[in-house]
């Protein structure tokens, strides 16, 4: 596993918000599980959550339905979908703060950067464009969401991520949504994620090579310093 970026020391008893970002099929859920296990082995208390919260928030439920063709042209609206994603996170903000007060580490599978990357990719914009600026104004400045201490970009080629998503669809009977099935969108998202990490958007980033099986022990060591 190749890891690039700043070293981060987590101080015991001080909650740190660690976000894992990447394409659909990059392996984020597996990395969350593996990193959770290693951190707990090291005596750290860990909480985790995943966005969108499809079974816990009405805004996320609407997102899921729109991604599968319901609600007319809602799914075609970049800003409309982005607002729903943002409202889902706003609804979780108090729980996130409570988890940060109670745990050493809070791990998130996706967060605000996903909104920025996918929306900008759909609009053909870069990280310095109007959409990414709007997402930051909405979620960071207006909604006041907790700032990550570190964002991990699990980076894999778009075709590798697509193959994994297809396999998951076959083996888990989980139908891919319109974003997951759009290979050109996934490629553009990969480029946007790389640029967000490169520019240190909102917080420090680490770029993790997820093409092979990640070394969870090594990554936990990097996160803990």
From TrEMBL:
Catalytic activity annotated for this protein? dTMP + ATP = dTDP + ADP
Q: Which residues form the Thymidylate kinase-like domain?
A: 20-202
Q: Which CDD domains match?
A: TMPK
What the entry lists under InterPro entries is as follows:
P-loop_NTPase, Thymidylate_kin-like_dom, Thymidylate_kinase
Give a yes or no for keyword Flavoprotein in this entry: no
Write down the superkingdom of origin.
Bacteria
- Molecular function via GO: kinase activity
User: Which key words are in the record?
Assistant: ATP-binding, Kinase, Nucleotide biosynthesis, Nucleotide-binding, Transferase
Instruction: Indicate the enzyme's highest-level EC class.
Output: transferase
EC number per UniProt: 2.7.4.9
Record function comment: Phosphorylation of dTMP to form dTDP in both de novo and salvage pathways of dTTP synthesis.
What protein family does this chain belong to? Belongs to the thymidylate kinase family.
Name of this chain's protein: Thymidylate kinase
> Which organism was this protein described from?
Saccharopolyspora gregorii
Q: What is the lineage of its organism?
A: Bacteria, Bacillati, Actinomycetota, Actinomycetes, Pseudonocardiales
């Amino acid at each position: 596993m190749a890891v690039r970026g700043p070293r981060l020391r987590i101080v015991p008893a001080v909650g740190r918000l660690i976000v894992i970002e990447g394409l659909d099929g990059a392996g984020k859920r597996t990395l969350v599980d593996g990193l959770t296990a290693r951190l707990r082995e090291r005596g750290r208390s860990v909480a985790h959550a995943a966005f969108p919260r499809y079974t816990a928030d009405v805004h996320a439920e609407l997102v899921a339905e729109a991604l599968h063709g319901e609600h007319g042209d809602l799914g075609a609206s970049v800003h409309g979908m982005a607002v729903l994603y943002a409202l889902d996170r706003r609804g979780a903000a108090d729980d996130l703060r409570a988890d940060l007060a109670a745990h050493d580490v809070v791990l998130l599978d996706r967060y605000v950067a996903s909104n920025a990357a996918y929306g900008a990719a759909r609009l053909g914009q870069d990280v310095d464009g109007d959409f990414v600026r709007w997402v930051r104004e909405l979620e960071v400045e207006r909604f006041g969401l907790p700032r990550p201490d570190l964002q991990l970009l699990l980076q894999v080629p778009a075709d590798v991520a697509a193959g994994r998503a297809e396999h998951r669809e076959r083996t888990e009977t989980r139908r891919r949504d319109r974003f997951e099935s759009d290979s050109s969108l996934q490629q553009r998202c990969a480029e946007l994620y790389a640029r967000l990490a490169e520019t240190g958007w909102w917080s420090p980033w680490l770029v993790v090579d997820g093409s092979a099986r990640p070394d969870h022990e090594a990554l936990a060591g990097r996160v803990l310093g």
